[in-house]
Design brief:
single chain; 276 residues; alpha/beta; 11 helices
């Protein structure tokens, strides 16, 4: 069972109390893990046991996802709001300038945390924001299709599909290169997380105008991309390298958009190497 932490933030002259769910384990330098849109902290479960011997691992549910309540009315899900919120979360958890690793939306947030000097290193796995307009529309269309399917499928049907490799492919092949490796329980849980994500549409709407065009100077940055990413195509990794010239660009062979389940050992090694 994940823990929860509450903390106060200010937005538009108003003070709000936010609550974030998180899982924390391991020892060593702190490492914050950020999932993608529609997912939850359990996306990191395959790699956490490999990271914990060397890192104090904190995997969170972003606001409006998993077991974290959505942001209060009047608070946007845009970068200028969410990035300082994550800084306040770190303060509430008693961690100062952690390493950070993020996937997709989480990768974009990780890079922004690095740009704000709120972290000591960044590992971004298929980060959002390096798309062309056509690629963005394709990715958002795919995400909306996944969301509609999760909303439309009766719970018993989700359970039935998750029991077979073919059914798990139907539910998750857009994000995993090897969906059959995901456990039935995990596929059910993440399908329900996508269906119940209160922050989904507002986050997607806020992302429509996002383009990463600025460098992240002054700290180690790793950008890693699965060569079987069907959501954010791997050529976006080249754009990321051009935008952040000092970044280490790593290919993840055989991995899809959410590579932590496709090759946990490789992803854990990339994160640990990038945060040494």
């Amino acid at each position: 069972m994940a823990s929860k932490v509450s903390f106060d933030v200010e937005s538009a002259g108003m003070r709000h109390t936010l609550t974030v769910a998180y899982e924390r384990t391991g020892s060593g330098e702190p490492l914050l893990l950020l999932h993608g849109i529609g997912h939850h902290w359990q996306a990191w479960e395959p790699v956490i046991p490999l990271l914990a011997p060397e890192r104090d691992v904190i995997a969170i549910d972003l606001p409006g996802f998993g077991n974290s309540p959505g942001l209060p009315d009047g608070m946007a899900y845009d970068l200028p709001t969410v990035v300082p919120l994550l800084g306040a979360l770190c303060e509430a958890l008693g961690i100062e300038r952690p390493h950070v690793a993020g996937n997709s939306l989480g990768g974009l947030l990780a890079l922004e945390l690095g740009r704000g000097k709120l972290v000591r290193s960044v590992t971004a796995l298929s980060p959002a924001g390096f798309w062309t307009e056509a690629e963005r529309r394709y990715a958002f269309g795919t995400l909306l299709t996944m969301r509609r399917a999760a909303l439309a499928l009766p719970r018993p049907m989700i359970d039935v599909l998750a029991r077979s490799s073919a059914g798990r492919a139907v539910l998750t092949s857009s994000i995993y290169a090897r969906p059959g490796r995901r456990s039935p329980e995990a596929v059910v849980a993440e399908t329900l997380a996508l269906r119940e994500a209160t922050g989904f549409h507002r986050t997607l709407s806020a992302g429509g105008s996002v383009r990463v065009t600025d460098d992240v100077p002054g700290l180690p940055v790793t950008v890693a991309w699965g060569n079987r990413d069907r959501l954010l195509l791997r050529r976006q990794g080249i754009r990321a390298k051009h935008t952040i010239p000092g970044a280490r660009l790593v290919r993840l062979p055989g991995c899809g958009h959410v590579p932590m389940n496709d090759d946990p050992a490789l992803v854990a090694r990339v994160i640990l190497d990038g945060s040494r």
